[in-house]
Each structure stands twice: as structure tokens, then as C-alpha cells.
Amino acid sequence: MTDRNVIRKKILELVGEFHRAAPQPGFRAGVDPVRYAGRVFDEDELIHLVDASLDFWLTAGRFSEEFEAKFAAFLGLDNVLLVNSGSSANLVAFSTLTSPKLKDRQIRPGDEVITVAAGFPTTVNPIVQSRCIPVFVDVELGTYVPTMEKIEAGLSSKTKAVMIAHTMGVPFPVREVREFCDKHRLWLIEDNCDALGSRYEGKLTSTFGDLSSFSFYPAHHITMGEGGAVVTRDEELAKIARSFRDWGRDCYCSGGANNTCGKRFIRKFGTLPTGYDHKYVYSHIGYNLKATDMQAAIGVAQLKKLPDFIAARKRNHAALSAGLKKHEQHLILHTSPAGADPSWFGYVITVRPEAPFSRSDLVKALETARIETRNLFCGNLLRHPAYSDIAHRTSGALQNTDLITENTFFVGVYPGTTEEMTRHVLSIFNQFISQ
Questions:
Q1: Which member of 166, 220, 317, 334 is catalytic?
Q2: Element spanning 298, H or E
Q3: Is 330 a catalytic site residue?
Q4: 341 with 416, same domain?
Q5: Same domain for 273 and 348?
Q6: N or C: which end of the chain has fewer CB within 10 A?
Q7: Helix 419-434 and helix 293-324, axial crossing angle in degrees, nearest 10
Q8: Residue 267 belongs to what domain range?
Q9: In terms of domains, do 267 and 289 share one?
Q10: Rounded to whole angstroms, what are the CA distances from 389 to 39, 331, 383, 386, 392?
């Protein structure tokens, strides 16, 4: 009988050969697209993916455990929970804080949460879905994150948490926000989906919050296709988050394990019979938001490349900044606050209101030249149909947020962007603005 390990090895060798046989066409300016984001991978990701598929372990398994452990080591945190998307990560993180296990610190319907309207909807959705009140503060042009003063102004007697994203990889003043939350006994959730590898005052973003979220969608810093993570250094919050991720069950056994607590059949829960199987006791109204092991396998391979990915994003961003500086009369260029060291998600540009052209004019020229652009997510979230009548409060005017809605967009800096592509992007800016 042929050894299955020998067959597996041959299959994986062929996978590597298959990838290496792929054609490598050059870039043709104006013909081939310059993507705003995308996956960057090699044979290692394909080998990991096929290796996991050969196990046919279709839910979380050995690769999920490996990814969680290695990602935790990278962040210097104790707990990483892999989930199926960044949006799910935000849902799990916020839901965790609604647990009755938190007693007087439980977030309840009607409580306020400070956030921003100029971001991605799923940072705000869990607040709304939990029947809490988002309190929207304005952001700064250029950085697209709020100042500490604006966050402080959003505080009221009903405030229970702050939940804000490091928009496009730019850290908000997270050390100061952490101190603000500690002073007022508030929870802090960092939406770090755009910001893997960003630092504030030398410390990785996602390590300041009580809970933080990540996305591994193809546009993000590393990818699993779909995928995300919730991270925390707090063991109790990790147990609650795991419960919300895993159907809401009280049991915290990993997949395929039994009786981790040693009390599976001897405890009493509510009005259930004494000794009711702990694996089927539910302490939260939860979901099934786990990722698959095949996704995790890709993530394990991607993690090895993360330092190079971060360096490439910074290099590409710096090249655009240098090339666009001559156009600052008409464009507000992308920057970051003091103390911040972004792992940039994209290069954000705001067309100045007094410029002799509009965002639409400039974007049309770029898109015609096969350069992909995207708006800064939803602009002002409150101007979208789904949010027009939600319960909310605004702290001050959302003047910059409205300008972003009208005048702001971004182009790519992801690691697949070559120097030739960047030169093409800058040449189109130069041609358009000179005309």
C-alpha cells in the first residue's frame, strides 16, 4: 500500500510546480489595471490551502490553532479568536460587551457609544443592532480620524464605550483615548481592520483596546479570502467573545474536544436539570461565526509575508506623497497625526473645495487610464438610506465628514503595486492637473 504521506508530498510538490508555471506578464500602462487593493501570494499559500483540503477538516482545526497562536505572538496578546470576516469581528467584539456576565459594566439598550460617521458601516452596525445610540464625532481632513478633543466632546452621562476605526491605517490618538476610557470607566474597541501593523507611539494598534477587530478580506493587509479576528488580553472577555462566536454556548471546549472544564455533567444552569450537558448550555444569544481551516491555512502562509507587506505599503505611500506634493494647492494629501506610524491601507486624497475641478472630474481621468479609485467608504453614514432614521446623536457639526462625502477618494498602495504602476498614476495626476 502506498504511504499517504508520500502521496501528499507529491501533490504539494505539484501544486508548487503549478504556481511556478503561471505566466508573468509585464505591466502595460493604460491597458492593465492599477488595482486599489488585491491579494499578493505565491506557491506557499496554494500549498497550505491544498494541504488543509486534504485533511478535509472543514471547520476550525490545526491551521486555525496555528494562526491564532502566531498572530497572538505577533501582537503580543494572549487571545486571538478567528472569525469569518472583519464585520463579524466587530459584531462579536461589541456583543461581548453586552453580556450580563459583565454585571454593572454591561452595555445595555439606550447606552451611548462614541464613534465616527466617516468610516465603514460595520463599525457602527453592531451598535445600532444592539439598540444602543451611536454618538458621531467629526474627523480631520488629511488624517480622516478624530482628534482627542472631538472624542472628549462626545462624552455624556450615558456613554459606555468608544468604538472607532484606525481609518485607512491611520491611528487615532489611541493612547490618549485609552486614558480617557480608563478615567470615565468606558470600554474601548479598536476597529483595526485597515491597520494591521500600524503603531502609535511605538506600540501596535489593536493592543490598546479592551477588544480589537481585524479583517482578512482580499483588500486587507493579509488575506484568507474571507476572514477576521477578535483579539484581547482579557481572559474573561475572551471567554465571552468565544461564546458569542460559537452559537452563544457556555462551553468553551475547542472543536472536537470534550469536558475541558472537567464539569460537563455535574453543574446546574438556570432551570435546566442538574448535570445538563455543558456543551449544550447557552449563556448568550450568539451566532456561528467561525472560519474554516482552509482559510486559516492561507492566513498562516500570509503571516510570514506581513513584514514585507507593511514595508511595501509604506514605500508606495511615500512615493505617492512625494509625487503629489506639487499639487497641494488643489489636493489635501494623506498624512497622519503626531506619534502615529501607519501601515497604510490606501492613499486618501481630498479635492479642495476651491480647486478648478471636482472629485468626479479627477476620478474619471484616473479610471479612464485604468487606475482604480474608491470613495472613502460611506462618507457620511447618516446620508445613506439605511441610516437615515436610526437613533443617534451628533457631537458638533459633521462638516469635514460631509466634505469627505463630496470630495474624497483613494488610490492603492497595496504590495502588488509596482514602481512602474506608481509612475503611471503620478503621470495621470500631472496630465490632468496641468490641463
A1: 220
A2: helix 293-324
A3: no
A4: yes
A5: no
A6: N
A7: 40
A8: 254-282
A9: no
A10: 37, 34, 10, 8, 9
